[in-house]
Design goal:
The structure holds three protein chains of three kinds. Chain A has a single domain, classed as Pyruvate-ferredoxin Oxidoreductase, domain 3 (3-Layer(aba) Sandwich). In chain A, helix 1 crosses helix 4 (117-128) and helix 3 runs antiparallel to helix 6 (146-163). By secondary structure, chain A is of the alpha/beta class. In chain A, the strands form two sheets. A three-stranded parallel β-sheet of chain A has the order 3-4-5, covered by helices on one side. Chain A has a two-stranded antiparallel sheet with strand order 1-2. Chain A is built from six helices and five strands. Chain B has two domains: 2-244, Thiamin diphosphate (ThDP)-binding fold, Pyr/PP domains (Rossmann fold); 252-383, 3-Layer(aba) Sandwich (Rossmann fold), CATH 3.40.50.920. In chain B, the strands form three sheets. In chain B, strands 3-2-4-5-7-6-12 form a seven-stranded mixed β-sheet, sandwiched between helices. By secondary structure, chain C is of the alpha+beta class. Chain C has a domain at 35-86: Alpha-Beta Plaits (2-Layer Sandwich). In chain C, the strands form two sheets. Chain C has a two-stranded antiparallel sheet with strand order 1-4. Chain C has a two-stranded antiparallel sheet with strand order 2-3. The chains are: A alpha/beta, B alpha/beta, C alpha+beta. Chains in contact: A-B, A-C, B-C.
């Protein structure tokens, strides 16, 4: 949910309406959970969950076996997956572009904890071009303070340049 | 200025700016973030209020009732099982004419246990004498708190109010909200002037015992105040619109109802999805509109009859069920339209957090046009 | 699944929720230095550490969510958290 919230914040900074919300299940950190984000030039009234995502972020690739994370994705849509071992090729629908990033390792190195939200935001910004790196940094500095902000910004930047943002 | 924030945080921020003097609440999902934020604000001395921690919702509202009787502007928030535990105090607060404002983060009731959204909790207390306002989005939620204090504290009204917004769907959603500044809120909402208050120097008993010679007249007075709240709400909404440029000066709000054959009726966040669905149906050449109910109590029966006088079919979306007799809103809409030729169908929908999509709204309109209604929509018959 | 009358269900549903899938780190127990005090089993929030027939303590990795509290409590430093490969 933190990732969705930060992406919405950064997108709004970039000048569009944004909406982020969770689909709550087990209320424990680390438990599988879905969260959704919408962007629009107009005020967003729709409240239903997202069934045909243009983009997905998979924070834990082990979920790919249990859940059809690619459901509803159309050709041209983008998946960003946190993994060390990208071996899920057979499951990716035709035409969906996949970016992989080992966000857990980056988060452990930059933050000291395996919390991948901010790293994956950097990857999302680079892979989709929907949010600018400056907006992302602003969102992170708004949410975190002091050295935590610096660490999260550098985690996001690492993933951003890894994917090849602004390319 | 629009800023992106969580719905619960928007509520806490606007409540802070309404300057409650006493807050008492008990945390319960999905209301928790509101009271966490407010407790933090009090602890940080950003809000000069007494925050009374208690061991249950019953005690929370009891503390609020006492503080209100002593002359304070008070605030609480709850949901679901918590609200039901408050039920006795709710009736007393209305009977004692205390203008308490309480946020309801709408959630279903057990059993079966569910933390997800519908509107069964506040609907279950529809007869308690509290005004009930339902918000479509987080902007309206925040704004209705200011209007609620203004209406409730009006000496012609003196009733408590629920400001209802859908649990998770709004409470946990981040979206842009324009929060008025402290100065702007102060200009709209003057300091609370109690009608009378508990004071040892001038002793007074409140909520006293009434014999059969008096009880009915007390209840009649509460009902009259509830009806006067229509005009008070409209007036407070107009003043709000003049100052902030957002219009809540009607108990109901029509959307694309001109020349509509079919009108949907709904309350709360489902109205947003319904508006998008109405746009799609209009684009496809179908004459469909939406009537949003903003105040469920007082019930806008005459306003509904007036807004729908030219439609042929009405489909009511009820996120609640009065077991044994259909949805609460549908039942009351039928009463409001009694004697007309309009066909009114009720649909029990989205109980316990089931997601509603645009295509569901369209499917309901299809059913209404075929004359099929007064039913649960979207039942998974395979598990029955 | 048909609905049970009165929201009633047989026991064992929690067993189907294999919280082990959430894990980033797994605990690795060193039998050489373990003094069999059982503190790990006592503090495990999932209750997934059991004493085996030889008196050694073993985690059930179907349910271990990798929180590391056992590593923290172990007086002999016999438990090491190792990163899972994902």
């Amino acid at each position: 949910m933190t990732a969705a919230e930060l992406i919405a914040f950064a997108a709004f900074e970039g000048g569009v309406y944004a909406q982020a919300f969770p689909a709550f299940g087990v209320e424990r950190r680390g438990a599988p959970v879905q969260a959704f984000v919408r962007f629009s030039d107009k005020k967003i009234r729709l409240r239903s969950q997202v069934y045909e995502p243009d983009y997905i972020i998979v924070q834990d690739s082990t979920l790919i076996g249990d859940v059809d994370v690619f459901r509803g994705m159309k050709p041209g849509s983008i998946a960003i997956i946190n993994t060390e071992k990208p071996d899920f090729d057979g499951r990716v629908p035709e035409g969906v572009k996949v970016y992989v990033v080992d966000a857990t390792t980056i988060a452990l190195e930059e933050l000291g904890v395996p919390i991948t939200n901010t790293t994956l935001m950097g990857a999302f910004a680079a892979a989709t071009g929907e949010i600018k790196l400056e907006s992302l940094e602003h969102a992170l500095r708004n949410r975190f303070s002091g050295s935590m902000a610096d660490k999260n910004v550098s985690a996001a930047e690492r993933a951003y340049s890894l994917i090849g943002g602004a390319a | 200025m629009l800023e992106i924030m969580e719905g619960s945080h928007a509520v806490a921020e606007i409540v802070k700016r309404c300057r409650p003097q006493v807050i008492s609440a008990y945390p319960i999902t999905p209301q928790t973030h509101i009271v966490e934020d407010l407790a933090q604000m009090v602890a940080n001395c950003e809000l000069d209020a007494e925050y009374i921690t208690v061991e249950s919702e019953f005690s929370a509202l009891s503390a609020c009732l006492g503080a209100s009787a002593a002359g304070s502007r008070v605030y609480s928030a709850t949901t679901s099982q918590g609200l039901i535990l408050m039920a006795e105090v709710c009736f007393n607060a209305a009977g004692m004419r205390q203008p308490i404002v309480m946020t309801i983060a709408n959630r279903s009731l057990g059993a079966p246990l569910s933390i997800w959204n519908d509107q069964q909790d506040s609907i279950a207390l529809r007869d308690s004498g509290w005004l009930q306002f339902y918000a479509e989005d987080n902007q309206e939620t925040a704004d209705l708190h200011m209007i609620a204090y203004k209406v409730c504290e009006d000496h012609d009204i003196l009733l408590p109010a629920f400001v209802c917004f859908d649990g998770f769907i709004l409470t946990h959603t981040y979206e842009p909200v324009d929060l008025p500044s402290q100065e702007e809120v102060d200009a709209y909402l003057p300091a609370f002037t109690p009608y009378h208050r508990l004071d040892a120097a001038m002793p007074l008993s409140m909520g006293m015992y009434a014999t059969p010679e008096y009880y009915m007249e007390f209840r009649y007075e509460i009902d009259r105040a509830m009806h006067r709240a229509r005009d008070a709400f409209i007036k407070a909404g107009r003043e709000f619109n003049e100052q902030f440029g957002r219009d809540y000066s009607s108990l109901v709000e029509g959307y694309r109802l001109d020349d509509a054959d079919v009108a949907l009726i709904a309350m709360g966040s489902i109205c947003g999805t319904a508006k998008d669905a109405v746009d799609e149906m209009r684009d496809a050449g179908r004459k469909v509109g939406l009537l949003k109910i903003r105040t469920y109590r007082p019930f806008p029966g005459p306003e509904i009859a007036d807004a729908l006088k030219d439609v042929s079919t009405v489909a009511v979306l009820d996120k609640n069920i009065s077991l044994g007799n259909g949805g609460a809103v549908g039942t009351e809409v039928k009463a409001a339209l009694y004697g007309s030729d309009i066909a009114v169908y009720d649909y029990i929908i989205a109980l316990g957090g089931r997601d509603v999509r645009k295509r569901d709204i369209t499917a309901v309109v299809d059913l209404a046009e075929k004359g099929e209604g007064d039913m649960f929509y979207g039942l998974r018959t395979e598990v029955l | 699944m048909a609905l049970g009358v009165g929201c009633a269900a047989p026991p064992g549903k929690a067993l189907e929720n294999k919280t082990g899938a959430w894990r980033v780190f797994r605990p690795v127990f060193d039998p050489e230095t373990c003094n069999r005090c059982g503190m790990c089993a006592l503090v495990c929030p999932e209750g997934c550490i059991h004493e085996d027939e030889e008196g050694m303590f073993v985690p059930d990795l179907d349910y271990c969510k990798g929180c590391g509290i056992c590593e923290e409590i172990c007086p002999k430093k016999s438990i090491r958290m190792e990163k899972e490969e994902k």
